[in-house]
Amino acid sequence: YEEGGQLSEAIRRCPYSVVLLDEVEKAHRDVFNILLQVLDDGRITDSQGRTIDFRNTIIVMTSNIGSEHILSVAGDDTQYEKMQKLVTNALRSHFRPEFLNRVDDIMIFHTLTRKELREIVVIQLKRVERLLAEQKISLEMSAKAQDYLADIGYDPVYGARPLKRAIQRELENAIATKILENTFIEGDTIVIDCEANALTFTKKAPLNLPEPQATPLV
User: Among 16, 30, 65, 116, which lies 20 to 30 A Cα-Cα from 192?
Assistant: First the structure.
């Protein structure tokens, strides 16, 4: 009552924004009617009669339409053009022509490769490092251990989700258990490696600092 919509109010306050509409194919038809106005005119009118300007807003929409065609050629880039045509046809069958005609560009992604999953491992590792830093614990992980996580989390069909579960199961849960067992405490550095197809967790030995020499009294 006497309030603007969630989208219009957010853009009114921050017109230079990026709006992400995930799985847009599940949206109600009224949402598409609003999007048609936004994509065509670049503005809408909220419940208070105010005109909301979307001309400085980037709208990104994702969809799972045609995903079965993407999965059918997972890991085979030679079939990409064929898959792209099939997905495009699926989009045209689901979305109204006037909606697709107002979208600036449609990008169909390749399936993830092991190299890309390896990069995701590095990103997720930084997130774990930040969580541990809150407890004043440091983390070091070998390249071999990172490769191991990328390998067990690789699935061209399901993308990065298996990798997320693998990191949680193999890395995060193991570290949490050892912290609860007081294996690692505040000030420690956890060194993670891979041996015999399993991660190993050891405590980094402290540096042997030289004992301070006594200053002779004059």
Answer: 116
Other CB atoms closer than 10 Å to residue 64's CB: what's the count? 12
37-60 average pLDDT score? 91
Structure tokens at 207: 């540096």
Provide the residue range defining the domain that includes 76. 6-100
Instruction: Report if residue 124 sits inside a domain.
Output: yes
Structural domains of the chain, count: 2
Residue 57 domain-assigned (yes or no): yes
Please state the pTM of the whole predicted model.
0.67
- CATH number, domain of 119, equals 1.10.8.60
pLDDT in tens, 3-18: 557 888 899 999 999 9
**Do 151 and 184 lie in a common domain?**
yes
CA angle, residues 149, 119, 198, in degrees to nearest 5: 10
Question: Are 11 and 96 in a shared domain?
Answer: yes
Per DSSP, the residues of 41-106 read HSEEE-TTSPEEE-TT-EEEE---TTHHHHHHTTT-GGGHHHHHHHHHHHHHHHS-HHHHTT-S--
Query: Tens digits of per-residue pLDDT, 130-166?
Result: 999 999 999 999 999 999 999 999 887 777 889 999 9
